[in-house]
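Standup notes
- DV: blocked on the single-chain target, sequence here:
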Amino acid sequence: MLLNRRVLVGICGGIASYKAVELVSRLQQAGALVDVIMSERAEEFVRPLAFSTMSHRPVYTDLWEPSGRAAETHIALGEDADVLVVLPATANTLAKLAHGIADNMLTAVALATKAPLVLAPAMHHTMYTHPATQANLAILRERGAFIIEPEVGQLASGEVGIGRLPDSSVLLGAIQVVLGRNGDLAGRRVVVTAGGTQEPIDPVRFVGNRSSGKMGYALATEARDRGADVILISGPVALDAPYGVDVRRVETALQMRDAVFDAVEEADVLVMSGAVADYRPAEVAPQKLKKGGKEAREVDAEGGFALRLARNPDILGELAAASQQSEAVERIPGGNRPRRRLVRIGFAAETSDVLTNARGKLAAKRLDLLIANDVSRSDSGFGSETNKVYIFHADETMEDLPVMPKTGVAAAIWDRVVHLLS
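- DV (later): unblocked, structure below
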């Protein structure tokens, strides 16, 4: 997404400008060509050397330098840019951008570019909520500027309020959202499930699995970066929500089933990468079970007790049955035409007979693609940063992908989904 993209980062004179150093570093590490433009006051907070060191490129500061080359440079920078990001967007710079004032290098480039404009306001909360600032933001938003809303938190003054610049992960996510708006999934709605489910035994304990959710979150992020409208249905995980993704939290398999059926109504694609528990306790104790207590049924001589499990619904199986019924209705003369076809992608996490089990699941659930992996491997198990997968197609052909980061696996899967959609 960011490889070889030309990103202009405009730095304004605000105390939060130090956060831009990390953003520039992360952009450069992701393969972007980053040019930094600093206002005169920004140099009071962070020196240009910090940005040139991180970007490996020169920093532009002076529109009025003696050679006159800056007049040509600001036009070239604007024409070549894929996106212009301004942070921390101060009240002063927002006012200039809203009213077309070009009295420094940054504002001159902003007038000279047709690239999307991303603004990350950061200032004292009274300045941010002032009617003049809000009016300027409204003007910029109406013109198509993408506004990264400031966060509520402790400000430089020591007060707590709105006006805090988000961390670099949020800023980076917003840039990727803007760059991906015309991607190969633009206009598509996709639903991704991630993480495991937790089936309660009592208010304290549960039956669960080891899924980290990393694969599902990588899939949701990749789809977002390709322009999709993404709904991420997530079980309990220790991961931050991807910026720009509609995250819907669930805990149990029954909750995930309801969330999936609700979300796919207008969806083009469903990717079931979540590790849904096959079973749940048949009865949930209303209070914490005590050792050897009366609440535990069938306590044996050693204080153990039997836990009876009930079968959880098969979400993909139910969707396959619904699809068959919908297709049958379409074939009946005068039948109601079903909603658009849902591309269904399943995952099979196996510990033995991976290929045999995957082929059986592919056929039984009438999937368009099935992604299988051996979770007993150290480079492909729950919680690992890499994955070794096999991709099974509906025509039973199989692709054997090498071990790669989960972000790479996500990209490979969406490449194949795009082909299916087209």
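- Follow-up: The chain is about 35% helix and 20% strand.
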